[in-house]
Amino acid sequence: MIGGRSRCLEATFMKIAVAQISCSLGDPEANLLKVRDFSRRARDVGAELIVFPEMTDTGYSMPVIRESANNWNSGFVAGLREIAKKLSIAIVSGVSERDGSSIYNSQVFVDSQGNIAAKYRKTHLYAVAPVEEQTCFASGDSFVSFELGGLHFGFSICYDLRFPEMYRKLAVEQKVGAFVVSSAWPFPRDEHFRVLAIARAIENQSYVVASNRVGKDDDLWFCGGSAIIDPRGVVIAAASADREELIHGDLSEELVHSVRRRVESLAHRRGDLYE
Description:
This protein has 275 residues and is α/β, with parallel strands linked by helices. The protein is 27% helix and 31% strand. It has 7 helices and 15 strands. It has helices at residues 28-44, 62-68, 76-87, 164-173, 190-204, 253-262, 271-274; strands at 4-5, 13-20, 49-51, 90-99, 102-110, 116-121, 145-148, 151-157, 178-183, 207-212, 214-217, 220-223, 227-229, 235-238, 245-252. The longest helix is centred in the N-terminal third of the chain and has 17 residues, at 28-44. It is globular and about 50 Å long.
């Protein structure tokens, strides 16, 4: 584990943790036990929020998700709410969401009182063989943010990283200063994951808090590399490519404002030319 603190004079810091885990395919109860363990470890280091990967409840397999996806009235999300309330820690997790005849690849934000405070449904589905998410999921139709500790956080899931327009829209229109990414990003595209996450931080002068899977589901091996990146593009905490780990780092609203004041690139955009 590598952990660190961004330097910002007279800043108020909020500690964020990222869980890099493998998942038990089709076994939400086993995965919930792992969430409980990592959340307890995050609380013990003083974290106010912990972020988990994509499809933490079911694992990342379209046939398994179709079979196991549930609504949020019971099961895995109800368990997340219990953990958050008992440990007094906020949780963001990738999770399946069944709504009527549709299934969504979603993220849920559960606050430290155990309330579902916000959710996001993945807007960019990975429609590439052999995965073909569109055969399992309906796509979301909105970008979503939430506020914690003075910072506005924007949701995003895995393949979303390849669409910079989404992050710019969140940064400009919803005043987001930190992006949370829940991912099941595979080998051999590990370098893409690293470069894209850093690029999204630099170009939006925002934190990126990225939780990626390790282990294997079906024929996919996941590449880890979970990271916390500051608004200057500095990696302040990073995980390995192949081990379960908890990483953490301190986020500062003041640092976001400082970086944006120094180089006002968001204000210098030529929207009249490209919007």
